[in-house]
Specification:
Number of helices: 1
Order of helices and strands: H
Shape: elongated
Distance between the termini: 46 Å
Strand content: under 5%
Number of strands: 0
Bound molecules: protoporphyrin IX containing FE
Length: 43
């Protein structure tokens, strides 16, 4: 079975950690923010 390049595997797991961290940090941050707060909007 052909293996992916170790650099791609490393990048994949760095990305995975960053996605999970953004959920862990961003979820509660958004939850405690008023829905009228403009910072909660993307635009
Ligand atoms: C929370 C984020 C993520 C988690 C927990 C995760 C987890 C995993 C796991 C467990 C595997 C199987 C590894 C193995 O077979 O040794 C995998 C494979 C893979 N992931 Fe992710 N991943 C995440 C995000 C992403 C993202 C954002 C991309 C693409 C932009 C991606 C692309 C891939 C690819 C291309 C494979 C290989 C599939 C194959 O075996 O052909 N992953 N990932």
């Amino acid at each position: 079975m052909k293996r992916y390049h170790p650099l791609l595997v490393a990048l994949h797991w760095v990305l995975a950690i960053m996605i999970l961290m953004s959920l862990v940090v961003g979820g509660p941050m958004m939850a405690e923010m008023e829905s009228t707060n403009r910072k909660k909007c993307l635009h």
